[in-house]
Amino acid sequence: MSNGIIIIPTYNEIENIERLIRNIFSLQRKFHILVVDDNSPDNTALKVKTLQTEFFGALFLEERTGKQGLGTAYIHGFRWALARDYQYIFEMDADFSHNPNDLIRLYNACSRKGADVAIGSRYKTGVNVINWPMSRVLMSWLASKYVRLITGMDIHDTTAGFVCYKRGVLEKINLDKIQFVGYAFQIEMKFKAHLMKFKIKEVPVIFTDRTKGTSKMSGGIISEAVFGVINMKFKSLFNKMST
Question: Domain Glycosyltransferase 2-like: where (predicted)?
Answer without folding.
Answer: 6-173
